[in-house]
Amino acid sequence: MPDDFVIAHNPDGDSTLPYLVRVPLGETGIVLKSRDKWPRTSKVYCHRVDEWPDEPDIVERVATRSCVRRGAAIDLVLDRGRENRSQFVMTRVRGRQVIFWQSSRTAKQARPNVRTPTARAMGVRDLEIVVDSRERYGYSFSDRPVTTTKARLEAGDYGLVRHGTLLATVERKSLADLVSSMTTGKLKFQLTGLAAIPRAAVVVEDRYSAVFKLDRVRPAVVADGIAECQVAFPTVPIVFCETRKLAQEWTYRFLAAAEVAEEAEYGGARLVAGLAQAPPLAPAPPTPAEVRAWALLNGHAVAEKGRVPLRLVEAFEEARRG
């Protein structure tokens, strides 16, 4: 189960980062120092710290729903109604490793509202794509900075292979091929193979609306089949891209994003491994409601309101330890 998320005052009075943040990542958790207690209006700069103090001056302590590292980012979800989702992003600025703490609101504000459809995908200069040797009339990616090679892929038609391992793959289908493979049962076997790859997708060279114009098979059967496959294989999206050209573009950008994500995963794992480990937290103090409920169940007299006697609090903690 996730541990608590804790914010404490930084005991180093000379630091420009006045708070310490204990992030419950993994079995031990990690420790950072932070400029603020939450990224409300802008990203919050964080920095690595050597250790968590023995007697921290705690500002806030919140139970955690989940805390997961994804590549070079740590996604944090707290157990409260507001200000409950945020992310620690590890990146480089002018060659220096930095950590920013952001919420969905501050991330949206920092993202420029521009589109550059002709730019290199994810900034990758030369993407190496392996085309399955059984693929006929495959994508050439001739207008993109892509190098293609032919080889047998264990799943999909276009793959990202590094050191002999298939890291990402895309299965290309026309609508007719999608319908045929679905009605014969072949599609589920293909999706089973795709689901075994870390990042995989199916791209369809047509519009979703074309499903409802089919005349040799009931459209509802195809629509239900697509929905059933997405529920059964949620990690393998089926993407409709209208035309062959758009499907090729989507495939290119998907594989480029997969390559960047793989590099971030490797770098993020190394960076997180180098952060200071947090010591175990002492149990949180019991709330008056918890003590009252325990006292009533165990035959102790206690008032419905007001302060709970210290003797009952001590008895509750002793029972909890025992």
Task: Characterize the structure shown.
There is one protein chain. The protein is built from seven helices and 15 strands. The strands form two sheets. The chain has a nine-stranded antiparallel sheet. A six-stranded mixed sheet has the order 11-10-12-13-14-15. The model is unreliable at 112-116 (pLDDT under 50). It has helices at 104-110, 175-184, 186-195, 219-232, 244-273, 288-297, 310-321, and strands at 5-9, 19-23, 30-34, 44-48, 58-62, 64-70, 73-78, 85-93, 96-102, 127-132, 146-151, 158-162, 165-173, 199-204, 238-240.
Task: Please describe the structure with a list of short key phrases separated by commas or semicolons.
322 residues, alpha+beta, six-stranded mixed sheet, 7 helices, 29% helix, elongated
